[in-house]
């Protein structure tokens, strides 16, 4: 239905008003009728379309009916489809009559000026602003959906700045403008109409702190662009130019969707009629356009790698060289964070997570800085943030736990669960569930992840681990069949089964950690007869099996979609579990190239039986397994390859706005 406004008439004096193209005016015919009048006749000039609603039917005028009864109260609508050249160049005349009179008891005159007032954005998501018949006030999901999209301008285009662009109120470069979405105000009609009317661009108070709008008038010079709307500025008076029918505004997002903010922001333009002195302005027409702020999207292991990050610390030269060799095989650039920047903190995966934001006109990566804030805390904002590389962070209000590190944040590849599609996968986080009173990911991070909507998070049980990260017992690798991937789960049961096989083959005296110094070297026989170790690994297996059930249901997996990787753990129930030998699930995935922690398992026939079993499981999928000596991290800092590296990956080909949450 077209936007409609009621217009009051008078037989004492002519009435003048504005009709915006595409809207309707409802005429208060009865309110102006002289006393004793029972009927009316209405006619308009050619540019006016008139309709009388009579007996629930809309009758276009002129018609065979000459006079219309005033009782019951008549409804008269008018619309205009031609823009006025002069003020008041179209008119409507209403004549009133008594029951039997031929002479009018009075006449009301209405002078009309038709103008265009339209606030437009890229509603069709084509990458350009255009006029459309789609409802601009409604934002809809899915491949057939519509609605404008806004990016959080969280990169840093000015190399002299210390913070992201969304924290300043200036345009530093034309590249800065390219990160923003255009919003176009179109006005047409007699220019003199605006001497008695005002165009007001405004934003709701609840949305104002989420956006900032810039306007440069007719100029293309950067210095002319000013912050005109958003934050503390709730409205801006637009002065249409006689020679320019379009005013182009640039809109930047300041905040991602989060608790209390759905991501939707509405902008309005209102045409106000300026009354006589000391009276308030009267709104005549409002046009609204709604944007949704693009979510932060996380990328799974199965997407192509674009850049590998690793930290160089004292004593890990061989590890860095091994990662460099892997990156070269995968034809992927390597960035080494030097000791001066990492300050001996090698856990770069725990410090940050890579993702991206996307709109029809622009896509760029965004690093998510964890609340962990170790010695690497300055690296994301000082070394990653830059032109077309954004930054976002969430802080814990109190003390952080190890579950706030981003080794405890993973995402699955795309899945379909009972007919429900998750084309961007589902985020996986670890928690204390089903135990109460344990460690949990901080609410600020969890709320942020949930609010993005497009990768509905799944909560797993990870508090049984000493460190508590989901990447200690699960990973994803690409596969050529089924769902396009395999879920890898650490499995004490698979490890005991393998060791039992080797014992029965006569290798019971083969030792773990052969060749390493100052490390106990238990044999296969000793491991299998260690009842304390077996009992603890039964507990670990029960925890992983619990998660297996959650993952099968949440990701729609069948058993053939899961591969059990042999792995033992040590520790106790009160303090938590840690890997008994380097955790092979905690691997680096670069396309088909896998960097797996070297397990230093028992040597059987001159080969590590643990490595051989993993090769047998993964290489038939077309994957290349490289076992990396991560002895430094395992025996000195109890880490793993995945936590010591980080990978920026290619965005999904699937557009997030096609998701149906």
From TrEMBL:
<protein>
    <recommendedName>
        <fullName>protein-arginine deiminase</fullName>
        <ecNumber>3.5.3.15</ecNumber>
    </recommendedName>
</protein>
<feature type="active site">
    <location>
        <position position="469"/>
    </location>
</feature>
<feature type="domain" description="Protein-arginine deiminase (PAD) N-terminal">
    <location>
        <begin position="1"/>
        <end position="113"/>
    </location>
</feature>
<feature type="domain" description="Protein-arginine deiminase C-terminal">
    <location>
        <begin position="284"/>
        <end position="658"/>
    </location>
</feature>
<dbReference type="GO" id="GO:0005509">
    <property type="term" value="F:calcium ion binding"/>
</dbReference>
<dbReference type="InterPro" id="IPR004303">
    <property type="entry name" value="PAD"/>
</dbReference>
<keyword id="KW-0378">Hydrolase</keyword>
<feature type="domain" description="Protein-arginine deiminase (PAD) central">
    <location>
        <begin position="118"/>
        <end position="273"/>
    </location>
</feature>
<dbReference type="InterPro" id="IPR008972">
    <property type="entry name" value="Cupredoxin"/>
</dbReference>
<dbReference type="GO" id="GO:0004668">
    <property type="term" value="F:protein-arginine deiminase activity"/>
</dbReference>
<dbReference type="GO" id="GO:0005634">
    <property type="term" value="C:nucleus"/>
</dbReference>
<dbReference type="InterPro" id="IPR036556">
    <property type="entry name" value="PAD_central_sf"/>
</dbReference>
<dbReference type="InterPro" id="IPR038685">
    <property type="entry name" value="PAD_N_sf"/>
</dbReference>
<feature type="active site">
    <location>
        <position position="471"/>
    </location>
</feature>
<comment type="similarity">
    <text>Belongs to the protein arginine deiminase family.</text>
</comment>
<keyword id="KW-0963">Cytoplasm</keyword>
<dbReference type="InterPro" id="IPR013733">
    <property type="entry name" value="Prot_Arg_deaminase_cen_dom"/>
</dbReference>
<dbReference type="Pfam" id="PF08527">
    <property type="entry name" value="PAD_M"/>
</dbReference>
<feature type="active site">
    <location>
        <position position="350"/>
    </location>
</feature>
<dbReference type="Pfam" id="PF08526">
    <property type="entry name" value="PAD_N"/>
</dbReference>
<keyword id="KW-0106">Calcium</keyword>
<dbReference type="InterPro" id="IPR013530">
    <property type="entry name" value="PAD_C"/>
</dbReference>
<dbReference type="GO" id="GO:0005737">
    <property type="term" value="C:cytoplasm"/>
</dbReference>
<dbReference type="InterPro" id="IPR013732">
    <property type="entry name" value="PAD_N"/>
</dbReference>
<dbReference type="Pfam" id="PF03068">
    <property type="entry name" value="PAD"/>
</dbReference>
<feature type="active site">
    <location>
        <position position="643"/>
    </location>
</feature>
């Amino acid at each position: 239905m077209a936007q409609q406004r009621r217009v009051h008439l008078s037989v004492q004096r002519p009435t003048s008003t504005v009709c915006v193209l595409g809207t309707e005016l409802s005429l208060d015919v009865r309110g102006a009728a002289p006393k004793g009048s029972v009927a009316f006749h209405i006619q308009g000039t050619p540019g006016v379309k008139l309709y009388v609603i009579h007996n629930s039917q809309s009758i276009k005028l002129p018609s065979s009916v000459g006079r219309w009864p005033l009782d019951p109260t008549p409804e008269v609508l008018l619309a205009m489809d031609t823009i006025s050249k002069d003020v008041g160049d179209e008119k409507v005349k209403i004549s009133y009559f008594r029951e039997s009179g031929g002479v009018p008891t009075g006449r009301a005159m209405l002078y009309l000026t038709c103008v265009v007032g339209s606030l437009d954005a890229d509603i069709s998501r084509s990458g350009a602003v255009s006029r459309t018949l789609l409802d601009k006030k409604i934002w809809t999901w899915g491949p057939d959906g519509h609605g404008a999209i806004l990016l959080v301008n969280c990169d840093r285009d000015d190399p002299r700045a210390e913070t992201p662009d969304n924290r300043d109120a200036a345009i530093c470069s034309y590249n800065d403008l390219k990160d923003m979405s255009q919003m176009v105000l179109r006005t047409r009609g007699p220019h003199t109409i605006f001497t008695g009317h005002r165009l007001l661009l405004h934003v709701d108070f609840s949305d104002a702190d989420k956006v900032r709008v810039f306007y440069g008038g007719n100029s293309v010079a950067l210095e002319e662009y000013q912050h005109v709307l958003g934050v503390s500025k709730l409205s801006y008076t637009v002065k249409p130019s006689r020679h320019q029918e379009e005013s182009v505004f640039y809109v930047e997002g300041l905040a991602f969707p989060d608790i209390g903010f759905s991501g939707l922001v509405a902008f309005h333009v209102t045409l106000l009629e300026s009354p006589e002195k000391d009276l308030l302005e009267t709104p005549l027409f409002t046009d609204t356009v709604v944007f949704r702020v693009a979510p932060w999207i996380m990328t799974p292991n199965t997407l192509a790698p674009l850049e590998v990050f690793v930290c160089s610390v004292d004593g890990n030269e061989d590890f860095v060289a091994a990662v460099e060799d892997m990156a070269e095989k995968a034809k992927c650039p390597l960035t080494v964070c030097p000791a001066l920047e990492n300050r001996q903190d090698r856990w770069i995966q725990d410090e940050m997570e890579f993702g991206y934001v996307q709109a029809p006109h622009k896509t760029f990566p965004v690093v998510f800085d964890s609340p962990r804030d170790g010695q690497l805390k300055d690296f994301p904002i000082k070394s990653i943030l830059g032109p077309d590389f954004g930054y976002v962070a969430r802080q814990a209000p109190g003390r952080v736990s190890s579950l706030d590190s981003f080794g405890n944040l993973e995402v699955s590849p795309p899945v379909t669960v009972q007919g429900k599609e998750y084309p961007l996968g589902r985020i996986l986080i670890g928690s204390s569930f089903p135990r109460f009173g344990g460690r949990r990911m901080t609410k600020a991070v969890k709320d942020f992840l949930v609010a993005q909507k497009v990768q509905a998070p799944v909560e797993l049980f990870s508090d049984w681990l000493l460190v508590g990260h989901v990447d200690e017992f699960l990973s994803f690798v690409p596969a050529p069949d089924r769902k396009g991937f395999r879920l890898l789960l650490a499995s004490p049961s698979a490890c005991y089964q393998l060791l039992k096989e080797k014992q029965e083959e006569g290798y019971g005296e083969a030792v773990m950690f052969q060749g390493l110094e100052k490390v106990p070297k238990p044999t296969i026989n000793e491991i299998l007869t260690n009842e304390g170790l077996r009992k603890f690994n039964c507990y670990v297996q029960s925890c992983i099996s619990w998660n297996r059930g959650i993952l099968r249901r949440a990701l729609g997996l069948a058993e053939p979609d899961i591969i059990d990787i042999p792995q033992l753990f040590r520790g106790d129930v009160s303090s938590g579990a840690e890997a008994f030998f380097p955790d092979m699930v905690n691997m680096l995935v670069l396309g088909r190239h896998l960097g797996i922690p070297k397990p230093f398992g028992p040597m059987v026939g001159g080969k590590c039986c643990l490595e051989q079993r993993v090769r047998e499981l993964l290489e038939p999928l077309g994957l290349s397994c490289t076992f990396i000596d991560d002895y430094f991290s395992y025996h000195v800092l109890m880490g793993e390859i995945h936590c010591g590296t980080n990978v920026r990956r290619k965005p999904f080909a699937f557009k997030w706005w096609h998701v149906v949450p």
